[in-house]
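re the bet — no i am not wrong, look at it urself. input seq straight from the record:
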Amino acid sequence: MKTALVTGATGLLGRQVYKAFSRGGWDVVGTGFSRAKPPSTRKVDLGSEKEIEEALDDVNYKIAHFTLPNSGAANRFPDKCDTDPEGARALNVAASVTLARATSARSILLIYISTDYVFPGRPGEAPYQANSPTEPPNTYGQTKLEGERAILAENEGSCLGVVLRVPVLYGEAEENKESAVNVLMDAVQKAQEKDAQVKMDDWAVRYPTNTEDVGRVCHDIAVKYLDTEVGKRTVLPKILQFTSEDRMTKYNICEIFAEIMGVPLDGMVANKEGNVEGGVQRPYDTHLSTSALKQLEISVKTQSFVGWW
């Protein structure tokens, strides 16, 4: 039986990746940190080379799936990354290098989750291909791009390092704040208060993608790459991209939530100003092309955003 190690298995995406591999008949071991609950999930500090190597050596793994652990949640949000760039770099870059070296030395396939924020997102440029020029607009995107480069550099020649870029995610959550999409339900609730006047971005275009779909794609990538003969893996793409086609702003998402919840949205104000000078710079539209996945005959179908909720 093939065995997969899922880091960040206690987090929003990691939980669904864990389930996807389990459904596929794999023996799956999950790791976490602050929310790890042995024996179901093993506590591993991704900042510790020793702990990473010990986790990998315990079982004969075929794949390690690297997602940001929940303890590194501050490194997933652009605002917090800009206020703590060293913390973001420690997780998004340094931990990536350590894990890539460890998996490469053991001939383990590594799937690294990256972001659409590696692209500038200027109006008229999207959709971005996997090989489009990168130009991160903020610290979050920059550290994720550095993580990508580290993964690919450590696996050069082995073809056992794969980058998967995804946009903003939503899905089954233990708390709404786990997801930048789910948490908008709280904003809708806040807008019900008297004189709330909650400002909500109605400028940047987003493509919210369900974590269940991402988990399934990760599983399909692993199967495709591991089932390909070693000598033929060199032709497989090293960078893949996955996204839904549900195009909307954060304000649009709040409108959907308000309709589903049966509440008015009079207490929310649509903000069409875009980036503010001196603030964290966000892209306008970083829509990802999924052509590389299609060429591999991996399904890019996604659940309906409205239907899932």
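see?? Residues 85-105 form the longest helix (21 residues). told u. also The CA atoms of residues 210 and 303 lie 7 Å apart. so pay up
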